[in-house]
Amino acid sequence: MGHDQKPLKGQIALVTGAGKGIGRACALALAQAGADVILGLRNSNLLADREEFEATGSNVLPVQMDVSKLDEIRDAVSVGHEHFGRIDVLINNAGIGAPNPAEKVTEGDFDETLDVNLKGTFFTAQEVGRIMIAQGYGRIINISSQAGFVALPTESIYCMTKAALVHLTKCLALEWAKYNITVNAVAPTFITTPGTRKWLEDPEFYQSVIDRIPLGRVGKTMDVAEPVVFLATPAASMITGATLMIDGGWTIQ
Fold first, then answer.
1. Residue 131 phi/psi, 5° resolution?
2. Marked catalytic residue, from 137, 158, 179, 206
């Protein structure tokens, strides 16, 4: 980030799934980098520790935004856009992935995961993308996963959606480059979040994960959030269509 400690000062960012885990860390890191942040929340009443955001000096606006509902996407983006006057950065973070052996996946399980991870991501990008096209500027960062590159048992549908996000990233990057919009993704390994805690607290599972990661540790949310901020800054202005692995080396072997 060089000498500029607030490289996103004056910019407006929207983060989906901003209530906890990676989404919350991204929102906080963007605020610390100077951006005002629209927090897309599946339940807009659930914003813990607001003080942390206020300490950054940036403005935050929580909005009701279940990305599986297209009307909530439209309304949330509209409210955020009207409030701040522009949207410069979009972090497509909302995602779900309940483990389920492939032979047991129901149509309901399948549809629910695709509605959030793929359909929600696409239509959020479309809604914000229209604003960015009109502005002639935008930075979109999709949260994929190492699960888009390697198979994880009992996660066939989740893995499939995360692989699709990598290709969607390329497609949107190509179409929207002429509008000065970059579209990139990050692909984290296991990160300690409220969603993964119960798995990582199982010593056997934890050890199996550590054994696969050459750097020898699971990730922290800021290990994802800080590279995400980098992709939104001028330092990354020539990067588009890329997916950055944040996996401690899991997928290189």
1. -65, -45
2. 158
